User: Fold this.
Amino acid sequence: MRIKLKKGKQKDLIIKSKSGKPWKELAKRVGLNEHYLSDELRNEKHLISEEVYIKLCKILGSNYDKFILRKLDNNWGRSKGGNNSSWDNTKPLIKPKESVKLAELFGSILGDGHVQERKKGRKGVCYNVMIIGGLGYDDDYIKNYLPKLFKELFGENAGIQESEKYGWVRSVVYGKNIVKFLRNKGIKPGNKKVNNQGIPNWIKKNRNFLRACIRGLIDTDGSIHYISRKNKNLRISFTSHIQKLLADVREGLIKTGITPSKIISNRQIFISKKELINKFLKEVGFHNEKHLNRLNSLRTSAPIV
Assistant:
């Protein structure tokens, strides 16, 4: 259950409950991720849960019941279809043709996604595909952008799940047929590192598909930042502990005319040259609002010319 308070009262409740305490301490007491509490909830970007509301009132020694406008179910405003889907759903699936959008979705799955096919007690097997992000960081991408892709490509409604305690949000689609489709197209169910998962061949063969796949990968497992505190030039990074995937991304960037660094510490590559960052932004780009906002913020101190 979510609590909608009068404007400004959620922030007021949190600030007064903090009362000089470090954010880390207050977050621990109410069982939340520190950033989610200090930024997202304090600035009223999200509604507070009833459980956290009660804890904060207890810490403060006062309640804000008179400021409550209404109480809302946890699923309000979310994509509902996926939430109601059966974990072993075997209904017919729209099988999309190979395309730029499908390649991009594959990139997102290869980045911070997981394809699951596992036994679930005596009932049978649980089939799903999920893509996870940071709560308060990747919300628009996970809750809006990816569900639109799933719907457009497969006709499936993605469910949205989130954990305030652990600071994650994820988009999930259940069904045997979507897992089967992904497997047939080159993404094996299970642990990607154990499987030494790479970019599927059908994507590698087409430069447009390759660019889209890399965009999905960097939207989920990449970042944009300054080279260092003293060096305000921009750098795009991609990190993966899957050796084949890391090598495939590096080779894919080279194929598209964007030569990154060598693989650093067996887990990371960088794009640092201004002309290559320009080329990346023009030909690959981002669809994750987090990266776009970060880029605009950093550009004020590090203009790309």
Observations:
- Residues 203-299 form a domain with the Endonuclease I-creI fold (CATH 3.10.28.10).
- The chain has a mean pLDDT of 88.
